[in-house]
Amino acid sequence: MEAASAAHAEHHGHMPVANASAKINREYFGMVLFIVSEIMLFASFFTAYFFIRVVQGEPWMPEGQELPVYVAMANSAILFSSSATMHWALEGLKHNNRKAFKTGLVLTLILGSTFLGVQISEYVHLGFLPKDSAQASVFFSLTGIHGAHVAVGLIVLATVTRRAFKGHYGPEKDKHWGVEIPGLYWHFVDVMWVFVFTSLYLL
Fold first, then answer.
1. Secondary structure of 149-180 in the HEC alphabet?
2. Looking at domain 30-202, which of 1.20.120.80, 1.10.10.10, 1.20.1250.20, 3.40.640.10 is its CATH number?
3. What are the angstrom distances between the C-alpha of 1 and each of 4, 5, 9, 160?
4. Cα–Cα distance, 85 to 193 (Å, whole number)
5. For the chain, domain boundaries
6. Cα-based distances in Å from 55 to 48, 52, 135, 142
7. Taken in order 69, 75, 80, 81, is the CA torsion positive or negative?
8. Which residues contact 16 (CB under 8 A, 6 or more apart)?
9. pLDDT tens-digit map of 61-115
10. Cα distance between residue 108 and residue 190, in whole Å
């Protein structure tokens, strides 16, 4: 009887360890759910875009309204580079390379800010407004929503960078979630730009 009780206790004693190893980080899972909801938001605007082009068969853009494709291509390269520097920063942290970690974060901030600045400059020099056509309205909506996501990402990354320079975070898995989760969001912003850029500027 005692042996059975000991075995039972031992069995239950090991259960929490197994469960702990199998747990998914709640913040990471929450970010995944948030990204899914944001994909649905973008999808609603893409629906309007394809309705104009496919269902109504209207040209993109209307006559007299042109998009600076080459500027957007260069700006896209800047944003995609920021995804690489974000990955570099996280890998630096995981390997306890503080210099690579902090440098990667700073470069990501610079590249992201440059992308946003170029997009704002593009708005100023476009020569048309959202009210000028349905195409213009969809263009400003999609790029504007994406730009807002970039701005939010920059605010979060600025906070992460400030904490990084104060010595926060570490190579241990439970100490780098605070970088990995914002990094996941930043990669989402970059991937979403692939669809926005391709649809609006190239197709």
1. HHHHHHHHHHHHHHHHHCCCCCCCHHHCHHHH
2. 1.20.120.80
3. 5, 6, 12, 55
4. 17
5. 30-202
6. 10, 6, 13, 19
7. positive
8. none
9. 888 888 999 999 999 999 999 999 999 999 999 999 999 999 999 999 999 999 9
10. 12
